Amino acid sequence: MLDAGEYERLLVEIASYGYVIAADGSPTGSNSTSQQSKVQDMRDSLDWAFAGHAKKYGKIDLTKVTTAGHSCGGLEAMSTAYHDDRVKRIIMFNIAIFQDDRRYLLQEIKVPVAYLIGGSKDMGYETVS
After folding, report:
1. What is the value of pTM for the model shown?
2. For residues 24 and 60, which has the higher predicted lDDT (pLDDT)?
3. Which of 7, 33, 66, 93 could pair covalently with 89 via S-S, beta carbons 3.0-4.6 A apart?
4. CB–CB of 8/27 below 8 Å?
């Protein structure tokens, strides 16, 4: 969902290491809708950064772009990276590959992937165990 507020602590921690974070939705979680984010939202964020708009936050190293997401957002991160040479890494949090007939797309990934699973009760656990 378009609610970046749920992930504030994680995103602030990552940003504290010098990363620029582009998160969909309200930073406070207020006024969030039940609208689902889309792959195009992540592509738009990359286009925004590569157009120079992220420079106002300091020197930005666009040679180290990482897409990341939780659940469906992880699938968006993966989908964005398939054929976008700007993406150098992917981080996926607690995702499951729901469409077994599309598992072949995993072979399209040509960058390192960090796949974080929350334990045996996580819906993505069976996928990676």
Report:
1. 0.76
2. 60
3. 66
4. yes
